[in-house]
Amino acid sequence: MIKVGDTLPATTLMEFSEVEGNGCSIGPNPVDVAKATAGKTIALFALPGAFTPTCSAKHVPGYVEKFADLKAAGVDEVWCLSVNDAFVMGAWARDQKTDGKVRMLADGSADFARAVGLTLDLTGKGMGVRSARYSMLVKDGKVVTLNVEGPGKFEVSDAGTLLAQARG
After folding, report:
1. What are the distances in angstroms from CA 11 to CA 31, 66, 153?
2. Contact at 8 Å (CB) between 61 and 86?
3. Shortest CA distance to 156 belongs to which of 132, 140, 130?
4. 158 phi and psi angles, rounded to 5 deg
5. Region of 126 on the Ramachandran plot (φ > 0 left; ψ -120 to 50 alpha; else beta)
6. Stated pTM of the model
7. What strands, in cross-sheet order, belong to the sheet with 41-47?
8. Which of 49, 164, 46 is nearest to 116 (CA)?
C-alpha cells in the first residue's frame, strides 16, 4: 500500500469534459497523474463508486462544500477518483454540481487503485474490483497525508479531516 512520502504511480486517469476549452476536447480526456500533480497541491479522495449512497450523500458533497476552504488552505485542485468510466463520472459530476470545484476522474480499469494498493473487492456484491475509500493530500506528486477507511466506514476520508491536514 502507498504510504506518506511515496510518489503517486505513473498512471493515466480519464476525465469527461462538458465544454471544450483550455486544450481539452469534449469527451474523455487522459490525465497523466505525474504531469497533473507536478508543482501542485492536490486534495485527492477516492471512493468505491459513483452514484452509491455514502459517496453521493456525504463524500462528494463534503468536498464541494469545503472547496473554498481547501483553496484557502493552499490546495490547488480537488480530485475525486472512482473505478467507473469517464462517462459515468461526467454524469455524476453534473448530478453533484462539481464543476469548477472537484475534478471527477475515472480509474476505469482500477489501474490507479491497484498501483497504490487500495482496492476493494466487491465482486460478491456484483460490483467487481473497486477503489477503497480514502483521502490523501499530495504535494508535487508525493503523498503528504493518507487517510484510509476501514471496511464500510466513513470516518477519516471526509473533507473536514483533509482540510485540517491541509491547514497543518
Report:
1. 9, 27, 27
2. no
3. 132
4. -75, 165
5. left
6. 0.93
7. 27-32, 12-17, 102-106, 77-82, 41-47, 134-139, 142-148
8. 46
- Hey, where are the domains in the chain? 12-167
* Dist. CA 108–CA 82, nearest whole Å: 8
In whole angstroms, what is the distance from residue 90 CA to residue 108 CA? 13
80 catalytically annotated = no
For residue range 100-138, what is the model confidence (pLDDT) as tens digits? 999 999 999 999 999 999 999 988 888 888 999 999 999
Catalytic pick among 8, 55, 60, 104: 55
Closest residue by Cα to residue 87 from 104, 101, 102: 104
CATH of domain 12-167: 3.40.30.10
